[in-house]
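Deliverable D4.2, example record:
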Amino acid sequence: MISRRSLLGHTAAGLAAAGLAASALPRPALAARETLRIGYLRGLASDAHLWTAERLGAFGREGLDVETIQFVSGLEAYQALVGGSLDLVTTGAVIANFPARGQGKAFLINAVEKASAQLWVQAGSGIASVADLKGKAVATTRGTTAHYFLYRLLQKAGLAETDLRLVHQPMNNAVASFIAGSVPALVTWIPLDLSIRKSAKGAVLLTDSGRYDDASVLNGWSARNAVFAERRDALRRFTAAWLTANDELVTRREDAVAALQRTKYPEFTAAEMVEQANAIALYGARDWAARYGDGFVTGILNRVTDFNVAVGGIANPLRAESYFDPSLFLDVAAKA
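Output generated by the structure prediction step:
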């Protein structure tokens, strides 16, 4: 069973050899049903596994009831997690922020967001390159995937944030400001670009994070500290349900994305959903296990944590080797 309400407004595919069919996953015997309160963001990197597990009945088979709350950005989601209103959150770059402060434990990665952040500019703004942002107002949200992308863009162009008039707003407000013509430039993420394409006449997508090797971020799951310490069995069952969904998304990608479009993203065309799916990289369980062990995951997390330090968001952070713990995933996947 799954219930939902909204809060704060509204590929390189993995190897099919992952071979983790839903029927192969372990099922708890006589385990008491448990409820997990989940905060998520709208976008396939964040919610594709959640809704696919729901569609396949994976949560119910694992003895879980899931209550979901939608957030605009990971900042609000983590604030609710730390405040005790949530048990789990799934977000992008903010997974390398709050856990690095010891506020939440990251334990499972959904996807690499390889091309989900975007820089939009107004027609007639005189902005034809990143260098042209100098002296201009740029709207985004502090500490998010979009802000990280902007930081990397400026580095590549030899600029600093002090060279701009940076306008930090909640992302829904930032998008609305851009559509209204109040700012000449916006850094945001998909799928929020849909409203820009429909409502901001002449707006130009200047570049996206897919064009920069070091601009990708990870999207994944964190648990409240007490949940990670005290409800390990519930998290194992959640991970088993996630594995069922991940196998579907990797081995039957086209059908899985089509199902998401029909049931969760009806305002998007099939082509727009494919474009959104192509902006992220999903991997099979064996491939994720390898990336957990070879420094790929911790390397990206640490890179984003270092960004948060550089922009004054964190002081003396934990390193990803401490705040990211994949042991639950590795244990459940090994027994599948």
